[in-house]
Design goal:
Elements: E1 3-9, E2 12-18, H1 30-43, E3 49-54, E4 59-61, H2 66-71, H3 73-76, H4 82-89, E5 94-98, E6 101-103, H5 105-112, E7 115-119, E8 123-125, H6 128-131, H7 143-146, H8 149-158, E9 162-163, H9 164-170, E10 175-177, H10 182-194, H11 198-214, H12 216-230, H13 234-244
Parallel strand pairs: 2-3, 3-5, 4-6, 5-7, 6-8, 7-10
Antiparallel strand pairs: 1-2, 8-9
Length: 255
């Protein structure tokens, strides 16, 4: 049955896109359900990192079910690309564990995530030009900033997929994993993040996004203001105390 499944490992919420007969395409209520799970994770104080992956080891997701695009069923939901853009606006970091094909709306999703881990068999595709549709969801504005502008342009203009090893070399992918190992490698990364001060992790994400949107001067002003606030907060007190006492910190995200 096509669905989004959620499980929690410590402070990590794992969301799995499950529709293997259609290469984990989003159909029916899957997109709405996915958005709901992301909202739940962002609102859960016990969750510090979210990892998104696909069922099996063939596909992360092939994006929207094209039958629903053609029939107008997708447009009728009025969701647009909101579920796939949501990670960008979440306070918590989101990692895409790309375990195979990652096309169209799934590429928007991977692009919206903060970090990307890909298996060696993963491929990234922007088929819009081949389908007569404009690549959207940040592909034109943001994708050229996460890989070379020329490579992003080639990906969109030719609609030919980008292999995982090349995506890694461009810097779009943070870590490359063996086939079937993307989720485990993403969890290694998630655990490392989850150990750190959640208030600072959230502030880093917000500051980087601010810098991308408004420029380096805005990011500098943000640093100066937020750093002074956070250095007086509970996470800073705990972090410094733990360092001096030579123990692991126990962060609670307090202000």
């Amino acid at each position: 049955m096509p669905e989004i499944t959620a499980q929690t490992e410590g402070a990590i919420r794992i969301l799995t896109i499950s529709n293997e007969p259609k290469r984990n395409a989003f159909e029916g209520t899957m997109a709405a359900d996915f958005l709901g799970h992301l909202n739940d994770a962002d609102g859960d104080a016990a969750v510090r990192v979210v990892v998104v992956t696909g069922a099996g080891d063939i596909a992360f997701s092939s994006g929207h079910d094209l039958n629903e695009i053609a029939s107008g069923a997708h447009a009728a939901t009025n969701l647009g690309e909101a579920p796939f853009l949501r990670p960008r606006d979440m306070t918590k970091p989101v990692i895409a564990a790309v375990n195979g094909h990652c096309y169209a709306a799934a590429l928007i999703l991977a692009l919206s995530c903060d970090l990307r881990v890909a298996s060696v068999n993963a491929t990234f595709g922007s088929p819009g030009a081949r389908l007569g549709m404009l690549p959207e969801g940040g592909q034109i504005g943001r994708l050229p900033r996460l890989m070379s502008s020329a490579r992003a342009l080639e990906l969109m203009l030719t609609a030919n997929p980008l292999p995982a090893d090349e995506a890694y070399r461009t810097g779009f992918v943070n870590r490359l994993a063996g086939q079937g190992e993307a989720l485990q490698e993403a969890l290694v990364l998630a655990r490392a993040i989850a150990k750190n001060a959640p208030s600072v992790v959230a502030a880093i994400k917000a500051g980087v996004i601010l810098g991308e949107r408004e420029g380096i001067e805005a990011a500098g002003a943000y640093e100066a203001t937020v750093a002074r606030r956070l250095e007086k907060a509970a996470d800073a007190r705990e972090g410094v105390s733990a360092f001096l006492e030579k123990r692991a910190p126990v962060f609670r995200g307090g202000a």
